[in-house]
Design a protein that fits this description.
Blueprint (H helix, E strand, L loop, with lengths): L5 E3 L10 H10 L10 H18 L5 E6 L2 H12 L3 E6 L2 H12 L3 E6 L19 E5 L1 E2 L4 E2 L2 H10 L4 E5 L16 E5 L11 E6 H12 L10 H8 L10 H17 L1 H21 L3 E3 L11 E6 L4 H9 L2 E5 L8 E5 L6 H12 L3
Parallel strand pairs: 1-13, 3-4, 3-5, 5-8, 8-9
Antiparallel strand pairs: 2-10, 6-7, 9-10, 11-12, 12-14, 13-14
Helix pairs in contact: 1-8, 2-8, 9-11
This protein binds pyridoxal-5'-phosphate.
EC number: 2.6.1.52
Family: Belongs to the class-V pyridoxal-phosphate-dependent aminotransferase family. SerC subfamily.
Catalytic activity: 4-(phosphooxy)-L-threonine + 2-oxoglutarate = (R)-3-hydroxy-2-oxo-4-phosphooxybutanoate + L-glutamate; O-phospho-L-serine + 2-oxoglutarate = 3-phosphooxypyruvate + L-glutamate
Length: 361
């Protein structure tokens, strides 16, 4: 077998370095075969939720639910929290997909859009006053733009009646979510957490629970098994409405525990150090430059570079060294590269990648 490459694609990405051991232990404990109504499952569920709460510093009036993916949450938000209108801050492919999902669900969805690599400015005129949910993508994985938390606080003041929704798929747990300014947040586990795909985490506060109740009382459907009332009814019993991804829930709890033991401050410092190494490399390099030109918008967890003369020679040369970053997203496939800077990517690996990038001109 060929040597396995270091995967630096921004999702799915390399597994967190402790996953292999946790997986072995899970098999020894027969985790994939246990009943989701057993005492063992509720222990796993409780531990995972507790670790996620600690890691993301989630206040007690927020609830934590498990879904199949972040994509599912887009649909659930439309189904549970919006009767008529939503607002979307669009600055790349994922925020755009969220907007499209709302439209497909019959929502009167409004968007403001930025040029690639930038963020649109949210003003009092950006959206109708009566939008029910305002959607932000904290870290746009397609462009490497990270939204400053101040922008979200300002939007909260401009649209006080709207539920603020935050996609933290490719930034949690690095992101320090201001739960005063955010009512619901969600992520999938195959990005920063370095876990196998197939599990989403949806965090909602009581304002969301209330809104779902109002929508239901007004005679609208909230969907079935993954409606907020159905999820909440089971979550208080440390269970889920359906048979969940038990192995995924188990592994997430273990990895979140490992990250807690390491310390979130250490994890954040390392992330910043490694991203600085990467952006310094882009600055020095004759034919690479960050897609996000404004420093305050440059993502710490997904670094996207424009490649003069195309991305292919970079991807090829790096592959020979066993390094596999992502290509550009969608239409930018051949002109950009995307580098995941997740907790499992070591300082040594990022320094090696930077050295190898400098050898390509
Ligand atoms: C990957 C990604 C998603 C979608 O995640 P799925 O697990 O495929 O549902 C949504 N938002 C962002 C920002 C992402 O990077």
């Amino acid at each position: 077998m060929k040597n396995r490459p270091f995967i630096l694609v921004p999702g799915p990405s390399a597994l967190y370095f402790t996953v292999e051991d946790h997986l072995k232990e899970a098999l020894a404990l027969q985790v994939p075969s246990i009943s989701h109504r057993s005492e063992f499952y509720t222990e796993i569920h409780r531990e995972t939720v507790s670790n996620i709460r600690k890691l993301l510093n989630i206040p007690s009036d927020f609830h934590v639910f498990f879904t199949g993916s972040a994509t599912e949450v887009w649909e659930r938000i439309a189904q549970n929290l919006i009767i008529a209108k939503s607002g979307h801050v669009v600055n790349g492919a994922f925020s755009k997909k969220n907007f499209e999902a709302a439209k497909a669900m019959g929502v009167d969805a409004h968007k403001i859009e930025a040029v690639e690599g930038d963020l649109p400015n949210v003003t009092a005129e950006s959206f109708p006053k009566d939008i029910e949910v305002l959607n932000f993508t904290h870290n746009e994985t397609s462009t490497g733009v990270m939204t400053p938390m101040d922008n979200i606080r300002e939007a909260r003041n401009l649209y006080p009646d709207a539920i603020i929704s935050l996609d933290v798929v490719s930034s949690a747990p690095y992101v320090d979510i201001d739960f005063e300014a955010v009512d619901t947040a969600y992520f999938s586990v195959q990005k920063c957490f370095g876990l196998p795909a197939g599990l989403g985490v949806w965090i909602v506060n009581d304002r969301c629970v209330q809104k779902a109740k109002e929508k239901s009382q007004a005679g609208h459907s909230l969907g079935s098994y993954h409606s907020i009332p159905s999820l909440l009814k089971m979550a208080v019993k440390d269970q889920t409405p359906e048979t969940p991804n038990v192995l995924g829930v188990y592994l997430l709890g273990k990895v979140a525990g490992d990250m807690l033991n390491k310390g979130l401050d250490v994890l954040r410092r390392e992330t910043i150090y490694k991203s600085t190494v990467l952006y310094e490399t882009l600055k020095k390099h004759p034919s690479l430059s960050p897609l996000a030109e404004k420093e305050e918008l440059q993502s710490k967890t997904v670094v996207v570079a424009k490649c003069e003369g195309g991305s292919e020679r970079f991807l090829k040369a790096l592959a020979e060294k066993g390094l596999q970053p992502g290509s550009g997203y969608g239409g930018a496939k051949n002109t950009q590269i995307r580098i995941a800077n997740f907790p499992t990517h070591s300082k040594e690996l990022i320094e090696m990648l930077s050295d190898e990038l400098m050898k390509i001109d």
